[in-house]
Amino acid sequence: MSNIKQTAKLGVFTLAIMNVTAVVSLRGLPAEATYGLSSAFYYLFAALVFLIPTSLVAAELAAMFQNKQGGVFRWVGEAYGKRVGFLAIFLQWCESTIWFPTVLTFGAVSIAFIGTDHSHDLLLSSNKFYTLIVVLVIYWGATFISLKGMDWVGKVAKIGGLVGTIIPAALLIILGVIYLASGGHSNLDFHSNFVPDLSKFDNLVLASSIFLFYAGMEMSGVHVSEVDKPAVNYPKAVFIGALVTVTIFVLGTFALGIIIPKDQINLTQSLLVGFDNYFEYLKMSWLSPVIALALAFGVLAGVLTWVAGPSKGVFIVGKAGYLPPFFQKTNKIGVQQNILYVQGIIVTLLSLLFVVMPSVQSFYQILSQLTVLLYLIMYLLMFSAAIALRYKMKDTDRPFRIGKKGNSLIWFIAGLGFLGSLLAFVLSFIPPSQIDTGSNTVWFSVLIIGAIVVVAIPFIIFANRKKSWEDPNSTIEPFHWEENK
């Protein structure tokens, strides 16, 4: 039996579903529902210029370095050196840290809707202090659980992904079909333009956050060596997964737009309100608390997984001499406790912004945009590194390669991803016209200063690193130019 397990390969369908589960999240659907029919254009556009390029480029890079640790630190570092490689892994960790308050805001709203009084649920979900307390309690609870070991979290995450994402997504789409088939009034104009007015930059801002919907596909690249005939089957799995993901996003967004008028869409509440409205129409309101509980469970399961995940990557790199000994300390079972504590303090400080932002919705949007900016910088580095490595490490074996011969296809695929990421990066600075974000000064200050500070921190740490920081037990292998020396 053991031999069978060792030689078992991931099938195309299995990998495609793994990609869908890793990427799909329903919390962002209301943001795109404000665009009506043209939301489908944004989903398809982002899939073509970001989702598919990310998956293919990550697969080539992961296959190249399948026996070497470091992830994006390795990929970017091999192309541009240790300093920039450290920037890439630091941004990946920092982005996930800033992401916590936004996803937990959605979780807090879901918990508010577990009640049976709809008007009371709405009032509670928009209360800043309720949201702040729930976010901090859940986050620190997840942190303390992760400090005791995360062996069981994988199972919780799988169940959470199914119960909290896949099943609710399918149900939302089915409810929309039943509603229309039974003569329900659609608030979505199916005769409007599919292609939006691209001359209005402020209307593109919310749509630029769609790129983060697809973020994380680079994680699936680590499985490329586990796929039978990767050159053929990996691209198949990518395209199937992308098709399923886009279908869920497009039809799920349409389902929300059908049941909620455009001017009543709220970024944090509308998913729950949409379910409520459908259940009320079908005289099944008793299901509302059930779906709210399922969505909340999905969020909690996802947070448990992410609390320890990216921090583990920056911890492994840190042990190679990139972080002071303070950040390398672990507890008795080897969990990176000090990094988790620092991560928790950052999440707490960000969550306190609830008090100064004019609404929960505006806080949610500005933190989401900052998350997008940081993640996109990492993706810009990743896409350009893939091209650079074709020349710097041209003789290195590539078990999965974009294009059988030459470099024209990698230029096209990685170039498309780079330009798409650059476009989204620029658009992310423009305040959205659909949401009250308060003062434009606060908006630009948080985004610009926030991005500069976060990017500067790893360079400062790198410039001040000491030989004594290096752990003799570090598992990070030398870069190719160090091996050549």
UniProtKB/TrEMBL annotation:
Alphabetical list of InterPro entries matching this protein:
AA/rel_permease1, APC_superfamily, Glu/GABA_antiporter_put
Q: Could you tell me where this protein is found in the cell?
A: Cell membrane
Question: What keywords appear on the UniProt entry?
Answer: Cell membrane, Membrane, Transmembrane, Transmembrane helix, Transport
On the tree of life, the source organism's domain of life is Bacteria
Q: Name one Pfam family in it.
A: AA_permease_2
> Where mainly located?
membrane
Q: How does it sit in the membrane?
A: Multi-pass membrane protein
Keyword match Membrane: yes
Q: Where are the transmembrane segments?
A: 12-29, 41-63, 84-109, 129-147, 159-181, 201-217, 238-260, 286-309, 339-360, 366-389, 409-430, 442-463
Output this protein's name.
Answer: Amino acid permease
